[in-house]
Design a protein that fits this description.
By secondary structure, the protein is α/β, with parallel strands linked by helices. The chain folds into 2 domains: 3-173, Peroxisomal Thiolase, Chain A, domain 1 (3-Layer(aba) Sandwich), CATH 3.40.47.10; 180-331, Thiolase/Chalcone synthase (Peroxisomal Thiolase, Chain A, domain 1, 3-Layer(aba) Sandwich), CATH 3.40.47.10. Helices cover 33% and strands 23% of the residues. It has 11 helices and 13 strands. Strand 12 (313-320) and strand 13 form a beta hairpin. The two termini are 19 Å apart. It is found in: Cytoplasm.
């Protein structure tokens, strides 16, 4: 049986930098309040007419392809994680496929929000293990800023979410080579409405109307306290699950790359696991929470900064809407 290995990573973030000071001018908030509750100092929002989920994912994918030393023509499967596709239908995977010029290659879309990239990574990993595909492009990309409630009522979410794209190339390698050791996926739909965007939903008599657009259901809703309480538990659980599945101790981790949901969550998990600063990668301070894009963006930045070395034990973990949570353990 083959194993899958990440051989190239890339990312793209929009040019438009949104500072806490800017947000303070459009809603009742301030830099101290945002930093204390989220750790975020600034984030990137897309420029309408310039950036799309497709264009951002194309830039990230081309960088990952270049770093992997392959051609787009070598890709035989695309797994695309996003909850903010350019079109309601079809999904974004086929739009990226078209831009890459690899028509005929299958494209699968994953809608698992903040856990989306690890879910997508796991799907790609299984297809490679079975021998069905040899080179898989896995993408996480989002434009969240256009769905945010930028009023005082929506400030708890509006200060967090941001836009960007990240990509990874997975290739089939021999079982004795470095690569993905295991992935672990979970969900609990009992909490679906604690972090969700209700409309436009297909089960309404009229899917979209001026009345719906004016309702709170058309904006992102997040019960921050509930999300935080569950996240700190599930993050730790799923990381320990990955370590136990591979008979490893947390001291073996060379770098933990958590989903960038909130710096307080990352710091809590770091403290609970007794990991030093150099073993945890965070970039939420400058890029905010880009949902499915956070982990591949973080991996790409960590690679650029020389924090991913041959054979290092890397742990990825995420928690988000659904609720869903997931982890992956791999040797770089």
């Amino acid at each position: 049986m083959k194993k899958s290995r990440i051989v190239g990573v890339g990312h793209f973030v929009p040019d438009q930098v949104i500072t806490n000071e800017y947000l303070s001018g459009i809603m009742n908030t301030n830099n101290e309040w945002i930093v204390e509750r989220t750790g975020i100092e600034e984030r990137r929002w897309f420029t309408p007419g310039k950036d799309t989920v497709t264009s951002m994912s194309l830039a990230a994918s081309n960088l990952a392809i270049k770093r992997a030393g392959i051609s787009a023509k070598d890709i035989d499967f695309i797994v695309f994680a996003t909850i903010t596709p350019d079109y309601f239908v079809p999904g974004n995977g086929v739009l990226l496929q078209r831009e890459l010029g690899i028509q005929g290659v299958p494209a699968l879309d994953v809608r698992n929000a903040c856990s989306g990239f690890i879910y997508a990574l796991s799907v790609a990993d299984q297809f490679i293990k079975t021998g069905m595909y040899k080179t898989v492009l896995v993408v996480g990309a989002e434009i969240q800023s256009s769905a945010l409630d930028k009023s005082d009522e929506g400030r708890s979410s509006a200060v967090i979410f941001a836009d960007g794209a990240g990509a990874a190339i997975l290739k089939a390698v021999e079982e004795n080579q470095h690569g993905i050791l295991s992935t672990h996926l979970h969900a609990d739909g009992d909490f679906a409405e604690e972090l969700y965007l209700k409309d436009p939903g297909s089960s309404r008599e009229v899917r979209l109307s001026p009345e719906i657009v004016d309702q709170p259901s058309f904006k992102m809703f997040m019960n921050g306290n509930t999300v935080f309480k569950h996240a700190v538990v599930r993050f730790h659980e799923v990381i320990q699950e990955a370590l136990a599945a591979n008979s490893l101790d947390q001291s073996a981790i060379d770098l933990l790359v958590p989903h960038q949901a909130n710096l307080r969550i990352s710091n809590y998990i770091q403290q609970k696991m007794g990991l030093p600063d150099e073993k945890v990668f965070n970039n939420i301070m400058k890029l905010g929470n880009t949902t499915a894009a956070t982990i591949p963006i973080a991996l790409s930045e960590a690679w650029e900064q020389g924090k991913l070395k041959e054979g290092d034990l890397i742990c990825l973990a995420a928690f988000g809407s659904g609720f869903t949570w997931a982890s992956a353990l791999l040797n770089w």
